[in-house]
């Protein structure tokens, strides 16, 4: 079993929580920014990049709040979660990412998320 380390990263996104939730929770929304194509059958989501395909299980979701997935190829308890947080005072919307990576790959993983979320912001017109 690998010793993956949990990390968290937050992005301010200029979007409504409702619209943002569509982009993080549906195959069509995820296809716009996270992967080249995404398909789902029930709780199984299939993420396709170029010639590779990864399967993830939807562990939990709460409408307009968060989605939590686990890669089925992983042998450990790691997951990735995308949570929408709305600041009560300013009404700013943030996307809070929780993910796991090998200790020496955390910075690379954070950069990957930063690039992916940058694509999401462009799709939302929030860039």
UniProtKB/TrEMBL annotation:
Residue ranges occupied by any START-like domain in the UniProt entry: 1-125
InterPro entries: START-like_dom_sf, START_2
Domain of life: Bacteria
Descriptive protein name: START-like domain-containing protein
Organism per entry: Cellulophaga algicola (strain DSM 14237 / IC166 / ACAM 630)
